[in-house]
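Need the bound structure for adenosine-5'-diphosphate, inputs here:
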Amino acid sequence: MTVLVINSGSSSIKYQLVDPESGDAIAVGLVEQIGESSSHVKHTYQGEKHEYDHVLADHGEGLRFVLNLFEKIGPQLSEAGIKAVGHRVVQGGNHFDGPALVTDEVRDLVEELAPLAPLHNPANLRGIDVARELLDVPHVVVFDTAFFQTLPEEAARYALNREVADKYAVRRYGAHGTSHQFVSQKVAEFTGRDDLKQIVLHLGNGASVSAVVNGEAVDTSMGLTPLEGLVMGTRTGDIDPAVIFHLSRVGGMNVGELDNLFNKQSGLKGLAGENDMRAVRALANGGDKFAREALDIYVHRLVKYIGSYAAVMGGLDTIAFTAGIGENDELLRAEVIERLNSFGIKLNLEANGVRSDDIRQISTDDSSVQVLIVPTNEELAIARQAMDVISK
Ligand code: ADP
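Answer from helper R.:
Posting the output first, comments after.
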């Protein structure tokens, strides 16, 4: 039994054939630079990576090429027991508080939500449309925002003029919800408790933090779009919105330029010249002043969110680090936890240095809060949610 998980971007298709029971990724691949003069395709099966450069004009050609690879290299989809396709969709607005079977109506709703996620939903939709054409199994959409539909109004509503906010559906929808849900459930399983006050730190290229009480999200750092919140690879995160007015009036920048500046030229990249945390750390280790400062700003913002979410929840039981930086950057974890020492949160230095793919505790046993590393797996979460939907 398998599920094909598809994450379709504006010029890319990421895919994984997943066994939702064992959690194994049976085949993994990526099509990049779709629509450019040459596209690049990687398909990994049974530990062997196959790479191709090929002209792929659109997502339809891209997916056809991938399905061909499954035939040629394996596994044969018909024999791999494919039961469903799970599609990652960024924005589900207020329409979806969980995964949904793709019908024509659901498809059209995803399209209707495009103004709220102009960079993402149209690209996700392209993947859904071509996959429905080519793969005759049930298709399920899993939304990045769904887990945050439980946010209370006081956390979801901006103090923006009510009429304007409601007319244009401006509110905090959050993002990375599939990961925050997966990780918070793992923490509950690991601790054997479902009555926890949790903070989940998803620190990848994009980064977000959530506050979860008894399994339900009560606050999160991403807002109308994934721009709000933490310092990210190329995004500013929180910033006074008046900076936009200022740069428009004084700097003469237009909306497109500002969008690009805030989303693509800021964050670690804008501060230190590199968006990849490993590169920033290497620079800082070599004495680069701006890289060190970028790390300090990154940690400062994280600590600020942890403190405020502990206050919002009226207590804190666990902190979970996840995603590329959260799972791998032991120095960052140490810097963050050190700043929380005055609250009785204590790091077990040795445990923090151990490399492993398993969930593990990195706080001391007498720490006031249990600190964990929890490897996330969004593809597996999507595959499991797809199976849940089709078995109903
Ligand atoms: P995405 O948001 O693209 O899924 P990931 O979750 O893969 O991103 O995280 C990518 C980030 O993780 C990059 O900034 C990368 O530098 C960082 N990262 C990966 N391994 C390490 C490591 N060993 N130390 C520090 N950062 C790491």
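Comments: The chain has 15 helices and 14 strands. Residues 204-206, 233, 276-278, 323-325, 328-329 surround adenosine-5'-diphosphate (CB under 6 Å).
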